Amino acid sequence: MFGIRVLIFLLGIALVVWILFRLARSPSIEKPGKKQVDDMVRCARCGTFVPRSEAIHEGDRDYCSTQHRDEDR
Ligand SMILES: [Zn+2]
Asked: Which residues of 43-72 are buried (b: 16+ CB within 10 A; e: fewer)?
């Protein structure tokens, strides 16, 4: 009786902590913060933002694909 209530209470606490933990972590991942902007580059051909690691670098320009790099020559 009392034990079950304590268990439910603890589960509720754990749930709240889990939600707060997710809320605290998600903004840095989903919210377009400054760090994410720094990691994104814009395709000089179509304007699509692509991760720097996936972008095609040509001189001082970045492209989303080799096709757009070739088209912009
Ligand atoms: Zn492009």
From this structure: bbbeeeebeeeebbeeeebbbbbeebbeee
